[in-house]
Specification:
This protein is α/β, with parallel strands linked by helices. The protein has one domain: Rossmann fold (3-Layer(aba) Sandwich). It has seven helices and eight strands, in the order H-E-E-E-H-E-H-H-E-H-E-E-H-E-H. It has an eight-stranded mixed beta sheet with strand order 1-2-4-3-5-6-7-8, with helices on both faces. The relative contact order is 0.14.
Length: 238
């Protein structure tokens, strides 16, 4: 059975209708991004797209919109400048992409409207490896990581250093990538889990496949970015 969000349908609709969006430029290079901040947001998720994609990835946009309906702010941004995309080596430079993601996190935590929110990372394809590289260097600042059809194995030696709770979501028909995710799962250093969506291929185009990804991801972020900090704050107040 797929996980079910704790939000009611009415609360989701209210969050969607009152969301505030703005286009941003992330220093130091001025990378273009789209920040969407639902009223009363309780967490923020930054997206790292995969090779050959951008902040306009229709699958990531769909996931982001679903998170917005659950009261989670989202930042989608381009990991490379337009002129850098012409060199295909940059698309697979995981260390470079990880640094760009670190810059985005350090910028967003200084923004007054969202800077105090717990931060999670959502990576797809090579973006998943970049998310794990960033999480390994940012420590407790990252509350959770989710990978969709990712290549976490490309994070290589930093996997044991990732302490943020990490969920790997893989299509059941994405042969080869499943094994790479299982290899990475064994090496991750913190709380970790893997969910396999039956019959789904790499981009999850099958009916209901991306919806399953959304439910798994939303439940993971709600558990680790919303519920866990709330429990910690209650315990500290006692």
């Amino acid at each position: 059975m797929l996980p079910v969000s704790s939000f009611s349908r009415g609360a989701k609709s209210e969050a969607q209708s009152s969301a505030f969006s703005r286009e941003v430029r992330i220093p130091p290079l001025g990378l273009a991004g789209s920040l969407r901040h639902p009223a009363g947001a309780r967490a923020l998720v930054i997206f790292a797209h995969g090779s050959g994609s951008s902040r306009f990835s229709p699958r990531n946009v769909q996931v982001a919109q679903a998170l917005n309906r659950r009261g989670i702010a989202t930042l989608l941004f381009d990991l490379l400048l337009p002129e850098e995309e012409d060199d295909r080596r940059n698309v697979f430079d995981i260390e470079l992409l990880g640094r760009r993601l670190v810059h985005a996190v350090r910028w967003i935590v200084e923004e007054p409207d969202v800077g105090m929110l717990p931060v999670g990372l959502f990576g797809a394809s090579t973006g998943a490896a970049a998310a794990l590289v960033a999480a390994s260097s940012l420590g407790d600042r990252i509350g959770a990581v989710v990978s969709r059809g990712g290549r976490p194995d490309l994070a290589g030696g930093v996997l044991p250093q990732v302490k943020a709770p990490t969920l790997l979501i893989v299509g059941g028909a994405d042969f080869g990538v499943i094994e790479l995710n299982q290899w990475a799962l064994e090496r991750l250093g913190g709380e970790k889990s893997i969910e396999i969506v039956p019959g789904a291929t790499h981009l999850f185009p099958e009916p209901g496949a991306l919806e399953a990804v959304i439910e798994f991801a939303a439940a993971w972020f709600e558990r680790h970015l919303v519920e866990r900090p709330a429990r910690a704050n209650r315990d500290a107040a006692r």
